[in-house]
Predict the structure.
Amino acid sequence: MFKGKTALVTGSTSGIGLGIAVVLARQGANIVLNGFGDTEPARSQVAEAGRVHGIRLGFHGADMSKPAEIEALMAHAEAEFGGVDILVNNAGIQHVAPVEDFPVARWDAVIAINLSSAFHTTRLAMPGMRQKNWGRIINIASAHGLVASPQKSAYVAAKHGLVGFTKSIALETATTGITVNAICPGWVLTPLVQKQIDDRSRREGITVAEAERDLLGEKQPSLQFTTPEQLGELTVFLCSAAAANVRGQAWAVDGGWTAQ
Ligand code: NAD
């Protein structure tokens, strides 16, 4: 479906970003990966997914909290792939603490990675998308972009901000072939959430399985995790011609979390 198009997925060495990159590769998009840690497993999974289409695969290790490194990432995509057609702003971190104890450096990092990075990639991708009069920007927000939880002030502020940013850019591009939408997942079992489950099990002296059950039971009525694969398939739909007039939406995939 996306042969000849290039998708940049930020934070795609793990979790949701990797899942989305795999599904886009399966649809024939060239992929630019980004993120920290061991990149080899992500590279081989994405390469395998796109092999039948002969996709091209790139990687840039920009730290998404640093505007200069984001500029280098976007310049790399321009030089190697002729720009970014599908931009998935996914990189994100979490920090859990009451506001009076919230470390200032963690606040700044959450806002920079979860919110400001999307501003930088978007402003840098936009001229190329306007020139082609085609583009898809998918911002991975969260159920926490729509409702709040205690002790996640930076994350909730960043994700609400990302939903607002999505709407604003959707309006700026409303008469063009560029669409901008957000996806708002509930719980997805990735390293980011596993850490919260492990912390809960330690804090409450319960097993990891019990902590997992309690975490879901508290917020997510389906009692099922959403999978990265499901978010990848929704991304494919939002990139398709069928979704050409879906603009500025914040689409929850949260097992009923925000219906309550
Ligand atoms: P994850 O920890 O598995 O993956 C995060 C990715 O971002 C990794 O590839 C990591 O290397 C990368 N990353 C982190 N900091 C970075 C930085 N400074 N620069 C570049 N890359 C960086 O997390 P995940 O659960 O897959 O989360 C992905 C996105 O989905 C985040 O924006 C998160 O807020 C959002 N989200 C997750 C859930 C969930 O339940 N897991 C729910 C809603 C929203």
